[in-house]
Amino acid sequence: MSKQIYDRVALIGLGLIASSMFWAIKRAGLVGEVTGYARSSETRDTARRIGLCDRVCDSAAEAAEGSDLVVLCVPVGAMESVMKEIAPVLKPGATISDVGSVKRHVIETVQPHIPEGVHFVPAHPLAGTEHSGPEAGFAELYDNRWCLLVPVENSDPKAVAALRGLWEGMGANVEEMEADHHDLVLAVTSHAPHLIAYTMVGVADDLRRVTDSEVIKYSAAGFRDFTRIAASDPTMWRDVFLTNKDATLEILGRFTEELFALQRAIRTGDGDHLFDYFTHTRAIRRGIIEAGQDTDAPNFGRERAKP
Amino acid sequence: MSKQIYDRVALIGLGLIASSMFWAIKRAGLVGEVTGYARSSETRDTARRIGLCDRVCDSAAEAAEGSDLVVLCVPVGAMESVMKEIAPVLKPGATISDVGSVKRHVIETVQPHIPEGVHFVPAHPLAGTEHSGPEAGFAELYDNRWCLLVPVENSDPKAVAALRGLWEGMGANVEEMEADHHDLVLAVTSHAPHLIAYTMVGVADDLRRVTDSEVIKYSAAGFRDFTRIAASDPTMWRDVFLTNKDATLEILGRFTEELFALQRAIRTGDGDHLFDYFTHTRAIRRGIIEAGQDTDAPNFGRERAKP
Ligand SMILES: NC(=O)c1ccc[n+]([C@@H]2O[C@H](COP(=O)([O-])OP(=O)(O)OC[C@H]3O[C@@H](n4cnc5c(N)ncnc54)[C@H](OP(=O)(O)O)[C@@H]3O)[C@@H](O)[C@H]2O)c1
Ligand SMILES: NC(=O)c1ccc[n+]([C@@H]2O[C@H](COP(=O)([O-])OP(=O)(O)OC[C@H]3O[C@@H](n4cnc5c(N)ncnc54)[C@H](OP(=O)(O)O)[C@@H]3O)[C@@H](O)[C@H]2O)c1
After folding, report:
1. Cα dihedral sign for A131, A230, A38, A77?
2. Which domain of life is it from (chains A, B) (predicted)?
3. Are residues B24 and B163 in the same domain?
4. Same-domain status, B50 and B86
5. Cα–Cα distance between B76 and A130 in angstroms, integer?
6. Which of B10, B67, B104, B114 has the most other CB atoms within 10 Å of its CB?
7. Domain-embedded: residue A261
8. What is the pLDDT of residues B201-239, one digit of tens each?
9. CA-CA distance, A70 to A63, in Å (whole number)?
10. A10: Cα within 13 Å, side-chain hemisphere
11. For ligand 1, is residue A154 a contact (CB within 6 Å)?
């Protein structure tokens, strides 16, 4: 039984997500030939040097031409222009997918450019690290993580099934979700937390009475987890917030409301309110560990793994 | 050359911090005999079963009597009552220290009960995990972490030097800091981030349109780091916020101000502001890694360490 799902796949954008896809595809032998393209010649050179993609092309159109699946792996704000560029060369029956962290906006901007006879199946792997670029990827990134498929109206079931097979072959668990719901869920589990972490790190940096070197030295207790999140790629995150505006602002509004209530409890010395709130949030952590979505090792296991 | 620094040390409270101290003390042979006491018979039984402390006593006074150093390892709100209980049995020349996460409040409530001829040297090791209790400790917890000594007026230099030696012997880097500055620095690097994480996890749990199981399943991207922080002990954190009220509220005020500015940038589509802000915060992360206070491995190294 051959595991090959597509003869030819093109990855447009060669950063963390695309490079991890490539290594996962190779690990399982899911594709005949993988072509790739990145905007800068620097990234393309790096890709050629480290063997990322079977063939690195000098234009998106060249990479996409003749491919059975083209995956847009660029920041959300760049998807439309890439789609416009490759639209003329797509072969009939090909599938376009993407890995963008926001789905409604990608659908609204990319779908109008999909040629007749080409399928469109948006997707979003819920996996990543704070690192980016072509050398950040590794084959295990998607193992046991979720990949959400967000089929549009009239998405071809066979195209959806093939893409599902690809993500499963790369190690992911696949589910389907509606675009607006996706954007709300991600606003809660990813977008709002990222903005909050960026904000807190910015505040610390900005505080005159505590020096940066103190912040850095004494970061162990809580803050350094925020700094990891706030080290993520600025372009990617700018695009996420600009394109998932409504859901992100809704969640931040709820967050601020709750934060004010807790600040009030601190100010008035309402220890019971604080204690109850903190007891409650523990249960969610337990659930995440039981669902296999994080390690129970103290500090994510990093303390004992010191060099 | 003997490494022994004290003949007898008493640990009052046998949770994460005290148990890690015990194992670190034993690893380096820093103390002749370590006695211990915890409030519940359950914790004392566990301590006896796992060999935590050379002698587990049934009262704080019994553990403290005859000790050269007594370390208060209970929640900040419980320090005063423990101090009152042990004051009558302390031997002249003994040192009282603590590990509380807040220092001004501990000094204000504990110092009045220190008997004549007994030294008082408050301290705070900046190390911990989200786990608590007598079985959570391990000898390596303080390795290469900071321990802040916060001597009070007229702290005896010899008592300070001995305590420094103990913490260095347990693997920590030691610095001295003034109490109010300590409380402000910790509000930035630890207390405010914890409250923010608790808040975000509470908001996610509370949101009707996204189910808890979705939050748990799709937590990979950012949110699960918050849930780890928000899994910390509710009693300890209630006490921290109630006793470091002013500094915490000050930092949360600054945080809210900044968050509003970023929300506004999202609302008005000011991508440049977001991009600049996110670029800036990356530098802090770089500093923390260069200072050896965190790992540079993606996701704290947990992705590749999966079972
Ligand atoms: N990182 C995560 O945690 C994560 C998780 C899930 C989904 N995603 C989504 O995955 C996508 C890629 O993220 P990533 O982390 O892989 O980013 P990355 O490592 O920064 O890589 C982005 C790639 O896109 C290329 N690119 C950027 N702008 C372009 C443009 N205007 N035209 C053509 N190519 C362009 C870049 O080329 P150069 O190298 O030449 O600049 C680079 O190869 C984003 O949509 C993001 O929302 C990310
Ligand atoms: N966890 C951290 O990350 C961290 C880091 C630095 C400093 N600290 C500080 O270290 C101290 C201890 O924290 P921990 O994490 O070790 O806590 P923990 O694991 O929850 O242990 C607390 C210990 O204190 C005992 N205790 C609680 N209330 C008491 C009372 N009223 N009288 C007598 N004993 C009492 C408990 O006894 P039972 O087991 O019988 O309830 C338990 O043995 C706190 O002041 C905290 O602020 C914590």
Report:
1. positive
2. Bacteria
3. yes
4. yes
5. 35
6. B10
7. yes
8. 999 988 878 888 888 888 766 788 888 888 889 999 999
9. 9
10. 29
11. no
Residue where a domain terminates, one of A177, A206, A240: A177
In a domain, residue B287? The reply is no
Contact flag A200-B193 (C-beta cutoff 8 Å): yes
What is the separation, in whole angstroms, between the first and last Cα of chain A? 43
Please identify, among B177, B193, B213, the residue that sits at the C-terminal boundary of a domain: B177
- pLDDT band for position B3 (50/70/90)? confident
Helices and strands in chain A, H and E counts: 13, 9
**Do A152 and A209 sit in the same domain of this protein?**
no
Is the Cβ of A120 closer than 8 Å to some Cβ of chain B? no
With an 8 Å Cβ cutoff, is B300 touching chain A?
yes
State how many domains chain B has. Answer: 2
Answer whether residue A140 is part of any domain: yes
Nearest CA residue ID for atom 22, ligand 2: B15
- Say if residue A57 is in the same domain as residue A154: yes
Host domain of residue A74: 6-177
Residues B15 and B125 in one domain: yes
* Domain containing residue A198: CATH number: 1.10.3660.10
Phi, psi of B252 (to 5 degrees): -65, -35
Residue B294 is which amino acid?
A: D
- Tokens 């709750």 belong to residue: A258
Q: What is the pLDDT of residue A3?
A: 86
Per-position DSSP letters for A26-76, written without gaps between them:
HHHT-EEEEEEE-SSHHHHHHHHHHT-SSEE-SSHHHHHTT-SEEEE-S-G
Q: Taking CB atoms and an 8 Å limit, are B280 and A306 in contact across chains?
A: no
What is the side-by-side strand order in the sheet with A123-125? A123-125, A146-149, A173-176
Residue numbers in B near A190 (CB within 8 A): 221-223
Q: In the predicted model, is pLDDT for residue A289 greater than 80?
A: no
Q: How many residues in total does chain A contain? A: 307
Closest residue (by CA) to atom 46 of ligand 1? Answer: A100
Claim to verify: residue B110 and residue B45 sit in the same structural domain = yes
